[in-house]
Amino acid sequence: MTMTQRLPDLLRALRAIAEPTRLRLLAVCRAGELTVGEITRIIGQSQPRVSRHLKLLCDAGLLERFREGHWVFYRVPTRGHEAELARAVLELLSPDDETARLDRQRMNEVMDERARLASDYLDTLHEAPQAVPDAQVDDAIVRAFGDAPLGNLLDIGTGSGRILRLLASQAEQATGVDISSEMLMVARTNLHAAGLHHCTVRHGNMYKLPFGNASFDTVTVDQVLSQAEEPALVLTEAARILRPGGSLLVVDVAAGADGVEADDMAGWLEAVGLGCAHIEHVQLPRTRSATLLLAHKASSVGDVAA
């Protein structure tokens, strides 16, 4: 562990871990976001009993809890003293332990069921959830950021979680937000399959994001503006949650029947105090193209945007 804790907090966390079921719950929830019902299936105990153990782990800071519609999800936090402690303890748990092996087996069954539901949902869509799923666009996004660390990353309108998967290796923590619970299910399935435990997704409206001011180092808005009724307001919210010195990446189909003018995007960014540092146009199949803009937020009031 690289972080220290006050004795009372450390003792409370250790007492919470020092019980067989709660240690199993911690190991299960390390793999990603799970509902009480899913956890109950994996652990094989009654829901009231599991809920009591989950509450104790949450009270000790070893699990975080959040609501999404009718569901409540649990996961091991990705940062902080308790996250460090949870990782240190779980590293001591042998992968050959029989109970842990059975829990992983049932976890895989739960995730297989999620994957089936996600696939069934995607089959009902008339169009693919990502309008421009082209490798050239992904390459342009990677080039725009280079090998720079992205810190705490937010992807607005995350859809299937494609951007999170693309940039996760450069982010300390990555969050996707989407208004569709069905697409969040798809994103969770994809992130779990990719083993990206430091990525999370949340339900939220892009016009009123559920995050405080200056919460993220990097924000991405991928193929959202062309679908938005108020695209300028989306970028206003993105600028609000972006930290000073942070970067905002906007990607969308270029002007056309359903596209967005690059000049409009640049104007919206300038209006919210962001300076455009990089613009790239990517040619796509069927005579289509995409526009990519990378903008930065000034580090201080006196800074001049790049």
Task: Give your account of this protein's structure.
- The structure is a single chain.
- This protein has 306 residues and is of the alpha/beta class.
- Helices cover 42% and strands 23% of the residues.
- It contains eleven helices and ten strands.
- The strands form two sheets. Strands 6-5-4-7-8-10-9 form a seven-stranded mixed β-sheet, with helices on both faces.
- Helix 3 (36-43) crosses helix 6 (98-124).
- The protein is globular.
- The mean pLDDT is 87.
CATH topology of the largest domain: Rossmann fold
Number of strands: 10
Radius of gyration: 21 Å
Low-confidence stretches: none
* Beta fraction: 15-25%
Please name the fourth-level CATH homologous superfamily of the largest domain.
Vaccinia Virus protein VP39
Helicity, in percent?
Answer: 40-55%
- The top-level CATH class of the largest domain is Alpha Beta
**SSE arrangement, N to C:** HHEHHEEHHHEHEHEEHEHEE
Helix/strand/pairing category: alpha/beta
Strand order of the largest sheet: 6-5-4-7-8-10-9
| Mean pLDDT reading | 87
Total of helices: 11
User: How would you sum up the major sheet?
Assistant: 7 strands, mixed
Shape, principal axes of CA atoms? globular
Oligomer: single chain
Query: What CATH architecture label of the largest domain applies?
Result: 3-Layer(aba) Sandwich
Domains, number: 2
Distance between the termini: 39 Å
